[in-house]
Amino acid sequence: MSYFSEYENLIQNINADIAVGIIAVTDHIKVVRKRKTKTDGYRPINDYYYASNHPKVKFEEMRVCDVLQELLLRNMMR
Q1: Predicted TM-score of the model (pTM)
Q2: What are 24-41's pLDDT values in tens digits?
Q3: How far is CA 39 from CA 14, 30, 31, 59, 74, in A?
Q4: Spatial separation of the C-alpha atoms in residues 38 and 36, rounded to whole Å
């Protein structure tokens, strides 16, 4: 499965979480990226966690609006 189709699922999940009030676009979430870097130097987002959850792997904190922007822009670059 390409990361483009994974991104569509992530976009839908984040938008659903926003719609039900679990997170807001100004909140910070923990973003886990894939280990393998793409040929253009990009490391795709693999998953995200809410502020209260702590993933067991390396993560970065990002604002929800920035995550959505990255997902949408990369998804359009197919």
Answers
A1: 0.88
A2: 999 999 999 999 998 889
A3: 27, 24, 21, 21, 14
A4: 7
